[in-house]
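The instructor's notes for this session suggest beginning with a concrete chain rather than abstract definitions. Hand out the sequence below and ask the class to guess, before any prediction is shown, which regions might be ordered.
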Amino acid sequence: MDDLNFLYDAISKGIPKADELKNLEQMTDSDMKKLKKELIIKIKEYKKQLLIQKLQRYRAFSENNKSKIKNSVKCVCYGCVSTILTYHISYDENTAVCPYCGRKTVIPYFDDIDYYLRTMHDYFNPEFPVDEENNDFWY
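After discussion, reveal the predicted structure:
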């Protein structure tokens, strides 16, 4: 019955094709396992899409952000994965520049940004490795 609840929950979120799931009670165990695997894959893809959308929303804060940065006590750079006190930031016109890496990848600090910061770096700046030993965090 737990498998059916899992599948019905997934159906209510609109993830699987409804016509494939009309007769769940009549499915064999092997069909149910196959369908569950397919649903898990679809759910993971959906979660990945949501994560990418969230990262892109955060990234938007790195452009024309002088006023937002100045209103923050600290900010973060997803270019070099650093936390920086706002008064250490310089600006190129209206956009904050990281004092460590020199890139325009600085965003204001958000409550959950620590969770996403490394992911943002890996997604948007994979060509720039993070220096784990010399990565300072200013608090």
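Then share the key points. Residues 2-58 form one domain. The mean pLDDT is 80.
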